[in-house]
Specification:
Helix content is about 95%, strand content about 0%. The protein has helices at about 1-20, 25-70. The longest helix has about 50 residues, at about 25-70. The chain starts with a helix and ends with a helix.
Length: about 70
């Protein structure tokens, strides 16, 4: 069991050192994180726009409904 923990620690250490030394890995990680952040912001903006559009449509139909009921 102790050997397995030591082996696991060595593998994690090697991987961490390799990823820090590799500019391609750094670029991929940076690009990935930027893309995820952009998508989060874009989805949030889309949700807000959909809610705004829905309110505009509801308002329009309420005006039409009120005009029809007044006539």
């Amino acid at each position: 069991m102790k050997k397995l923990l030591i082996l696991t620690a060595m593998i994690v250490s090697l991987y961490a050192n390799a990823s820090n030394a590799n500019p391609v890995t750094n670029w991929v990680n940076k690009t990935w994180n930027e893309t995820v952040e952009y998508q989060k912001n874009a989805w949030q903006s889309g949700k807000e726009q959909n809610a705004k559009n829905m309110e505009t449509i509801k308002s329009f139909f309420n005006k039409v409904k009120n005009n029809v009921s007044q006539n």
